[in-house]
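Each record in this resource describes a single protein on a pair of labelled lines. With that in mind, the following record should read easily:

===
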Amino acid sequence: MTATSSPPARQAHPLRRVTRSRDADEQAHNLSQWDQRYDQLSPGSFEGSVTELWLPRTQVFVETANRALRQTCAAWPRSVWFGVPAARDGMMSMGGKPLSSRAVCIRDGGAEFDLLTAPDFNLFGIVVDRLAFADYLDSTAHQDLDRLLLQGDVRNLEPGRKESLCATLAGILADAENPETPGTDADALQERIFDALADMLLGRDTVPVPTTRTRLIHQTTVDRVRQYVLDNPEHPPAIPELCAHLHLSRRALQNCFEDITGMPPLAYMRSLRLNAVRRALRYGSGHRPISSIAYDWGFTHMSQFARDYKRLFGELPSDSLRQG
């Protein structure tokens, strides 16, 4: 992952746009000023959207997608990201931490993190300029942003408070459609966002979510397997090979993947490889045969590859190549 650029220069009016996508990686690129890669994990044709709003020192967006995704993300540098997913308990996770229905996520901009999202997910994101928000907290509440962020990167809100935060963000995105209405200029909208985030951070009922040592070990194992697959694309590892490489039993490996991804290890690795082929078909040069690209990622039986590809993405490899 490479460092992303800084947000656009200060503007007098809100900048709002809506994008829709039929491909997971296309959706990843549709979010401005982020460095992202998405892998589709659940089968079927992908549909997603991003509605984003740029204010003087803030980016606000709501993202939807109908398929489970593994997202590798980094917001723009010198910022702080707040993620507010609408999800059922245990259906999503960030960095190995399961997200409850009341969870809010917080990460520094410019630093990569992983997000596993559920099918039909909906997520509000707010990215604020770190210095501007720190100044706001200091001047309005005499609080230090760095100290507040040390309390944890996943926090649970009391019932009703998360719903109120989501309603505030939805209202801001809606109000930005009518910038001539009094109180909807960029500065006013940004102050509403800063105020809502400050209220969330300073709330006495905001509870940091701990991570167990076992969960961290499982996440590390899944990350190592993913990297092993990406480093050896032409040689998909068998389970005995992985167990020997990681010094784990077959059962322990299975437990790691079920805990973190909800998938068996072979199915997860196949999804990673199929997503890599799809990227090459859609964003590559287009001069190489599909079979050559498939071979690059260890698919040697073309008929089985085509079936697996269509099952995951809802289309044949040749369809993806035409759309590239």
Residues 15-208 form a domain with the Jelly Rolls fold (CATH 2.60.120.10). The mean pLDDT is 89.
